[in-house]
Amino acid sequence: MQRLVFRFYAELNDFLAPERKQTEFIHWLNEPASIKDAIESLGVPHPEVDLILVNGKSVGFDYLTQNGDRVSVYPHFKSLEVGGTSLVRPAPLPQIKFVLDVHLGKLATYLRLLGFDALYRRDYGDAELAQISSQQQRILLTQDRGLLKRSLVTHGYIVRSHVPEQQAKEVLDRFHLHNAVAPLERCPRCNGRLTAVDKAEICDRIPPLTRLHYDAFSRCQSCGQIYWKGAHYDRIQQLVDRVTLATGTSVQPDDSGV
After folding, report:
1. If both were cysteines, with which of 7, 36, 47, 136 could 61 make a disulfide (CB 3.0 to 4.6 Å apart)?
2. Are the beta carbons of 244 and 114 closer than 8 angstroms?
3. Rounded to an integer, what distance in angstroms lies between the CA atom of residue 113 and that of residue 82?
4. Which residues are CB-neighbours of 15 under 8 A, at least 6 positions away?
5. Which of these, 239, 52, 74, 48, lies nearest to 142 by C-alpha position?
6. Could you count the other beta carbons within 10 Å of the beta carbon of residue 126?
7. Helices 164-174 and 233-243: crossing angle, nearest 10°?
8. What is the mean pLDDT of residues 91-115?
9. pTM of the full structure
């Protein structure tokens, strides 16, 4: 048997049993295990962890536990750079892209409205989501701890809120994306890129009154959906402004047609 003393910090306490939150506690192991497995057995998915100290020394996920170890586990720091200290932080992704599980469809739409590449399908299974995250270098967003514990997943996040607007704010904060918001660059329906299109080119696809009152249009490069500033403009404007409130960004969402 091994006797270990654990202490989890900040938001990692979200995953712990009440009696283990914000305090040191003893954890027993029947045999030596990787520190990754020991941490995840307590409910904390490894992509949520940014720094592990064992007896005051930084270790990687492959560290094998020893009797008497004192383990401190830290989340991603918002104001402290530990890149040179952490042995568990994965290499940065070349660009920010997401893949979302089946329960986060509304969040996927909001992220697309904000200009982020957010892959989502209702029929993605857990194994497929983990594979997409790994092969396409996408951050996996989920509310399923088990999914995030899969070894293939290196970049991921458990979305805490169940309110879509709050979820979007949460993702912007967690990944420091306030300055990356670029509204109306992606199709909220399919995630394709939007480009400006000449009115004459799509004249036969828009309603007569729309042709009369609007001149600026965009088209999705993937699904062909046409967008313009229409009846839902103000409502969508207010929604995106609320989500991006911290940025002070004023955006110009479009309405969509057939």
Report:
1. 36
2. yes
3. 32
4. 8, 42, 43, 44, 45, 48, 145, 158
5. 48
6. 14
7. 40
8. 95
9. 0.89
Partners of residue 51 on adjacent β-strands: 74
134-139, long-range: CB < 8 A, 24+ apart:
136/97, 136/99, 137/93, 137/94, 137/97, 138/93, 138/97, 138/98, 138/99, 139/93, 139/96, 139/97, 139/98, 139/99, 139/175
d(CA 150, CA 129): 10
Strands (DSSP E) along 9-144, which ranges? Answer: 25-29, 51-54, 57-58, 70-74, 97-100, 117-119, 139-142
The answer to whether residue 150 scores a pLDDT higher than 60 is: yes
Residues near 27 by beta carbon (within 8 Å), at least 6 away in sequence:
4, 5, 6, 38, 42
Instruction: Taking residues 89-99, report their average pLDDT.
Output: 94
pLDDT for res 82: 61
Q: Which of 47, 76, 77 is nearest to 142 (CA)?
A: 47
The alpha-carbon radius of gyration of the chain (Å, integer) is: 22
CA 188/CA 253 separation, integer angstroms: 11
Residue with tokens 């396409």: 136
How many whole angstroms separate alpha carbon 20 and alpha carbon 14?
A: 10
User: How far, in Å, are 6, 74, 171, 196 from residue 26 at the CA level?
Assistant: 6, 17, 33, 60
Length of the chain: 258
User: How confident is the model over 99-111, as a mean pLDDT?
Assistant: 97
Q: Quick one: pLDDT band at residue 80, thresholds 50, 70, 90?
A: low
Between helix 105-113 and helix 233-243 the angle, nearest 10°, is 100
Please report, as a single letter, which amino acid is at residue 111: L
